[in-house]
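[agent] plan:
  1. take the single chain provided in the ticket
  2. run structure prediction with default settings
  3. attach structure tokens to the ticket
  4. add a short note for the reviewer (M.T.)
[agent] executing step 1
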Amino acid sequence: MNQAIDISWTASGGTDEAVLPVRGRAAEQERITQWVRRLIHRRAGGVLWIEGPADVGKSRMLACAADEAAWAGARVLVGAGLAGGEMAPLAPLLDALTHDVDDFAHGLRIRSFQRNVPYWLVQEIRNRLRVLTRDQPVALLLDDLQDCDELTLLTVRTLTVQLADLPVLWVLAARAHGERPAVEALRRNLLTGRAAHLELLPLAEAAVREMAQDLLGSRAVEAAPYLGYLDGLPGAVRHVCAYLASEPPATGPGSLGTPGHEQTVVAAAVSRRLNQLSDDGRQLVQITAVLGESLSARHLARVLGRSESALLRPLREVLAARLLSTDEDRLAFRHALVRQTVSATLPRPVRQSVRRRSVDLQLRAGVPAASVAAELGDVAEPGDTRALEILRTAARELAPVSPCAAVGHLRRAVALAQGVPQERQRLAAELIPLLWQVGEVGQARDLAHEVLQAPPDPVAHAEACLQLVRMGSQFRLPRPDMHLRFVHRRRDVPVPLKDQLLSMTLLSELLTGDAEEAGGGMSDALMRTRGVHAVSELTLRTVQSMSACHRQNWGDALKHSDGAVANIAHLDLVHGSTLPEVALSTSWHASVLSLAGHDRAALELVDDGLRAAEARGRRAFLPLWRTARARLLLDAGRLADAAGQLAAAEALVATTGLPSTGEASALCTLVQVARRLGDEAAMEKCVTRADAYLSGDDPHQRRVGAWLTVVTAAHRVERMTPEHLSLAAACLQRGFVHALCADPGDVVVLVRVALHSGQRDIATATVEFAEHRARRNPGFALFQAAAAHARGLLDGDRDRLLTATELYGDARPLLKAGALADTGELMPEAGEARTCFEQALELYDSCGAHQESGHLRNRLRKPGIRSAGAVSRAPEAAWRGLTPAELGVVRLIAHGATNREAAQRLFLSPHTVNTHLRHAFDKLGVRSRVQLARLYLREVDQPGEESRDGIPAGPHGDVG
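[agent] step 2 finished; step 3 output follows
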């Protein structure tokens, strides 16, 4: 019986081996020591109940109690229950008494032939203990009470009462929360009778490490990776250390630190811990491991086919053993590797059967398909039509919020439907758009071609065509007219689906430039659509808006775009956001809003779309949103931020292989950002793409390529051929590139390059186009500004350029800076030119337009614009923090000019002069024009010095 105890006892109560220090049990050991010494010295009896989970060190505490009792002069008697053995009645007590008392054992053997009555045995044990206590106190230690027979438990309960007046110390150890009612009854009875109670808890991490060091010495490092899986149980630590010490460290596969070796060691520890459980507890742990990382007790009871109350005892047992933990109403394993190891103890067919039963029970209880789809996909067999339908339903539920998860479920459904070709094709058609959304372009393309080659039915054919058109230019529908005619002839294809296919085809043709080549087919196609579905109505509104833009009717473009976005509210709130039509329409609406002067609203729309796409994992939409955001940031003069958005979009395309359907619009934005930042590498990339576009046969790409070349020529001050200038003019007159409106200021760039190339007729035609566009759209101030800017550049008209400066306002700082710089070039007086250049330089610097700032500074260094002594003065060295524009106003006011006179002199509006003056008052801390004049004349003007424009010069001879 004594083999059940970790320490083997000698006749004197000692041990055969050196006892290692009791790590992490100082408080418990001290309590046992004091308790034993006090009772023995007083020759008084008592009961100490020690409990805790298996392997927590109860036997080691019994050994400590035995040592103290022996040193104090007590006779030590030891017995234990035997797990899984057929024990004779009272065997633990009899074994303790006969272990070293030969005459008692001999007497029992003689009398056992005469009478075999349990009552008689109890009396003999009681009498023997009375005899033993005559000479010295007795310490009776019983381990593993949960494995003792019923009569032993009853006898202990009886004798602790009957012998309470004798110096008998009962030290009893049992597992906490054992499943046996008799043990629980004994525990309650003893603790009610004022027995001492000691509960052993798992060791702290530091104590576990010290224990491993004691057991393995220099090889303790080998145990370090596994100690965390042992939950602080000393017995498990000793077992693992013994396992490691029994074999030298392996080399090659499965060596120390590799997954194979880790699984082997953890499996050895888990096997020991499972064997320590009851049959019910072991089954509970194994089924829980099979069912996943966490589950409710109610669901576990249903899978086991038992009531929840019937699980209470085994559940308390496994929780005490620390194999499972509870998190609110869920059961979970503490370590994933332990769960996997426990699950592997069951054969695979059993695991599959358990999991399928779990899925069936959840579905019967009304659990959503999305919650069980992953588990069902693992256990379903090929051809399981019910599993296919559940996976399809789960994918539809998850697609709006987690397209990646939806892809996994549909992919599994396609694999399970290999033996059902028609169903597989239908599932593949649903999988195509999801693959595209998450960026798996290659697989989406392959599936699309497969479905189109053998469509399962007309509806699936129409759906596949619609999805291909939705996904853009990288999935160009082969022979679209043939497919459209086939779909529209089929009466079994719903009318809303036909409308969506037609309207999306029209939008795709507009985005890719095919509509311009189709002649008058656009209006005829629009008449054929019925607009009976909210999605097709949304798409048609966007098509109408872009068509109005192409006709340069921007008022109608804004009206139709507003209507398109209003239709989004009528879509399904969950699934509507997954449609490319919604993303395209919203992006287009933001672009039109920005053109109309509503920049903040436009940026909010794009930011919302970008955040939603990132949160939901719709990677295919990210290049569109980032390009749209980059364009809005470029318009606002935030060049560095715009470059960051374009770089992020390019990185996504590069890492996923996802072709950008809006590559042309991204390039048109990139070339403008790069030329202003002076990014030669990005400019070279745009030149390469422009050459590729120009060498192709696609008319629309040739136009875009020509426009890219125009911007490059403006940057490098190069000449262009009339052919390329004409193509670029056609690109601008189109009004948009993909889902972004053309920049109103692009006409100025084209006029500038045309004039430099000696093509005045093209420049004149471009100016006339800009003026025609401005007349047709009087509510768009940017068109008025761009027309005035282009005309002023063509005719050398300062008044037109000043008008453009005012019309640009603060919304387009880069365009305004360009108009100011052009105005300065036409100023006859150096002071007036300097003022314009300084204002332009201030705007360029605030936007980070390093390239244009450098050019303007070089211009300011030319004779007649700025004195030699002023070249070294940086713009930020202005007097008392005033900007160059504010300092120019202050200079004139200090010398007696009125606001109107200063405005005329500086070619500004009186309102702008008043704004600069108010800012100057705040910065200088003055309250009147008189105070301003005195301060300026005292600190800035040098007596007797006059500038070239008749205004006193600064302290360094600088007019600024």
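[agent] step 4 note for reviewer: The CA atoms of residues 79 and 142 lie 5 Å apart.
[agent] ticket updated
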